[in-house]
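Problem 12. The chain below contains 522 residues. Write out its predicted structure in token notation.
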Amino acid sequence: MKRPYAAASHAALKAGLHERALELFKKGLSYQIGADEPVIRIYLRFSQHAYLHSQLDLLALDETYRSYLRSLVFRHEKNYQAAWEVIEWISDEALIPLKVSILCDMKKVGELIELSEAGVDVLSHLKVERKEDLIRYMIRNHDSLRAERLIDSTEVDQKRLRILFETESSHPVARFTWEAFRDTHLGMTEDPIPQDFPALVTTIKDLDATLQDAAHIHLINRFYDNPQYHRALNLNSVPHMKEKADLLQYIMIEALYTLKFDASLLGTPAAQLDMLFEYYHSGNRSTAVIRAIHQLLPDAKLTDSHIRSMRKMILYGTLDLYNERLIQMFREDKKAFTVFQYPALFLNTKINRTVDNFVYYHFTAKVREKIFRPLVTELVESTEKTTLPRYFVHYLERTRHRSFSSMCILVRHTYRRGDYKQVEKYINELIPDNQFRMRLYLAKFLYGFGEFEEALHEVKAAEKLTDQHAELYMHFIKIYRRLGDPENLLKYMDKMKAHYPKALSDREYEKAKAAYEKMNRN
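Solution.
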């Protein structure tokens, strides 16, 4: 059972016990590709993506398993392209369910068909609602033949999917492309111009009811993106849909938010946001979709999913933080500030100053504290080199004496800026035990960045404070091994073996000893 480790690891991190959290985190992993990962899920539940990415950078894991875990995190972040790219190259069959889900997220029908043609029962790896959504999507994009092949190749829910297929594919919108419908039912060989609409509407009225619906849907989907047609569409085709909300599912999302559709037909603001964000994350980031999201956010009851989506929009530069209605929303909605409890917003140098300024000028000191405190917990283990923005650094400076984690991040930030004198001043403010911890903390990340000489300098400084400590010896051993220094490597292995014999295997020791003897012979 891995769940107890998951809960205990998260609780330890929340309490600031980072080493204990990591120890329990490692015990909570399954180390099996495709397996359930409770320890990953609990951190995802709290959107602690930065912490997970950092641990995946640092832990000694099989690369395919690391990629599997990384993909889970990226997918939860709604970064579907990254989630796909880290596992695309892995042929392990245990990854097929995840691959199918990600491709479905991105509406990558071509790749799903390739899997199907390779013998994979694609639909069996999806929940029934997602199966139906995929089949509808394919039929409405005039891909009925391949949709039918997917249904034929599955046994699970096949009868239900066949009924759906017959119903959807019989609708004139799905049966005909615009060109085929125009030629067959409207008696035209070329697209109409706006001035043709009065006569065209008369022709449409002579069709049966289902074909009339299809005609107006096709006209909307064909011409909504051309402003010259907006008046004609708003006068004729949009009113036709007023009492037919069930037909809106056939209309392109951009059209619904470009033309003058009655807002009451589109559902609640929260439901509309769910639809728009799903569309946005699948790669459709049109101006109409982004504008609609901005209009709806202040009127919706925000969910955790909306919060994650807003973070991605900020990172992509498509959420206008200085939109007046959004500013009002951030002031009034008690949950909205949690959008900024996300390390990537303060690490990404393209947007971190903008985010930092927004947080400082639009939230009270009490709310800023709520934003920054959980950031500190995650950033302590961050493997990013980036320097931090001004007001967040001010918070770290104010809290460094009551929070060792704040001091850790402040020291790393100052070190990265190259202000080594200030680094020493900060470290000297600490009691000796914490100076020792800080030196090893800094060394760990310098080592991770490949800066071995700099890491060695910090470890030697730590040795002056405490010369007998298992973690100290382990740092020396790791660094001297990477520097190719057999003499000093063996020296600290001897110390480790003398004081902490269980921390070092005989095989490692004998290998280092042989390398040292070989160097002497040479």
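Discussion. DSSP finds 32 helices and no strands in the chain. Students who got a different answer should revisit the alignment rule from Section 12.3.
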